[in-house]
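Progress narrative, work stream C.
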Amino acid sequence: MSTEREAYLCLSAILRTREPKLLNNDRAVRMLEAGSFEDAAKLLGDCGYADMSQMTAREIEECLNDHRSEIFCELDRLCPQKLLVDVFRMKYDYHNAKTVIKSEAMGLDPKHLFSNSGRIKGEELLSLYNDELYTRMPGFLGVAMEEAKNTLARTNNPQLADFILDRFYFCELRHAAKDVDCDFLTGYFHILVDSANLKTAVRTLRMGKDADFMSDALIKHGSVDIGRIRAAGDKDALNALFAHGRLEKAAALGAEATEGGSMTAFELACDNAVNTYLRTSKLVSYGPEAVIAYIAAVEGEITAVRMILTGKLAGIAPQTIRERLRDLYA
């Protein structure tokens, strides 16, 4: 048995035993129905979180970031393919990149908005950026930040800078999926791109913008060709492009959203389609699939915890919070 296979067998077994402790839909409902924010926070004890019952919204965010970072660091040590963990870390690098560039343009300090779940700490990224040491940044990040900075300086359009960073993020994600050589990861990349492109197309139609506006934001290499998405000039044509795939329900809700329907319901359906895909990993007993699914499940859990706790802290009605929660993996 190969060393890599043995490592995946061991790691997969560890992660499978942790899955029952993840926040599931029933526990999320109990948190929503708890009589107070404090009671809701205390229900997370069995999920391995620190006690957040006396925290502010900012402290909750910091605690959740620390929780994610600890899991990433542990998986870095245990996973035979470090790049597999980097696939999920890089999203936070690009979040930090957007924060740095926009904050510079507005003359603000970005440090309190950083996530330290990326491949490079936020403050280190800022230091390299200020010194224009782009080649020391991981992956495509340096090239992406330099291009985004120049575009923002030339156009004064933060949205265009965001589009550039998004394109580089998905490009780097695609290359990582190829290097890991895992069909499940490739499928995950495809549904992420398809979901992002469907959201872009729906927002474009909803705002009454033209295909040129859409072109700047569309991402290549999804399951649906971006040329066909650009050519879909109305809700029916757009719906037809995704009608027989994993985003079928989301596309139908997106068609409604283009004419004033709920964007929340549409975007939730996109997220749930991704989660449904991830659940298929349970059919695989060990390997990269188990690691991918576990990390994605933790990401979904953290999103749900943030929404529930900060929502209850702000006095938002449980039903309103529930309407925005996506299906959980566990």
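Work stream C, second folded protein:
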Amino acid sequence: MKIGSIDLGDRPVMLAPMEDVTDESFRLICKEFGADMTYTEFVSADALIRNIAATTRKLAINPAERPTAIQIYGREVEPMVEAAKIVELAAPDIIDINFGCPVKKVAGKGAGAGMLRDIPKMLQITRAVVDAVKLPVTVKTRLGWDHNSKIIVQLAEQLQDCGIQALTVHGRTRSQMYTGDADWEMIARVKENPRLSIPVIGNGDITTPERLREAFDRYGVDGVMVGRASIGAPWIFSELKAGIDPAQKLPTLAEKFDCLRRQIKESVDRIDEYRGILHIRRHLAASPLFKSIPNFRQTRIAMLRAETFGELLDIISHVQHDILPQLS
């Protein structure tokens, strides 16, 4: 699969852009576990052109994680064009436009998935961004605003006509948010459209090797994007790809615990001890390493309440070396 001149190989599996999740450290770890491409946290066009420090920091890319896309969102043409030009100077491999974020503070203001209620404006923004930069431009969006407006098949054609070089489709409407099952039949309809020539990337509920194979073999997508299933489990890329590539090395339990320790340390080093631990709690709460441990409630509470680096590492070591061996 190619996006412009960027060759992602056969059946690529990519890390989806997620706010407060896909920071530089996490992206690099996912890359090391087999992610074929990474996406930054989404970047507000308005904040970027105002030079808000917290936003400009999101543009940093580690050369080892490439290829990487920087994703931008906004609701007006001129700020999106200006933001795209700023992003181009940061030298990502791809600029991606977010027309899929469903959260109220974004979609409710007309950006992200909110653009699904104003298709002419969406197309105007897309065409203007494509024309303003030399990098490949891609789009990530949803099936439609709600069940009664699943417009993605026609919309995909319109976006292609604007000049985008790949399209990612999350198999839910904005109204669904992240509930219910992703509709991969609709994603397949996009891919089957003979008028569409750009790569189609499917997104939604890819949590097992079986679902990954189904995405490629049954629904025919060119690539797959993995989002929430990677939170607290960046090694999922190795596990997923082992289902389609027997040569893929699976991480050991010890390597998974070492990975969590690395995430904690790099989060603390990047921010500070207090806020770095707050940031990493989402990963700890979601990690499958702790999901099947019986009578784990008190240890889990202690882990999520830990306030120092040392305290948190002690709890994780206790789980690895004291609790888990008793269950085997």
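The chain has a mean pLDDT of 96. No further action is required on this item.
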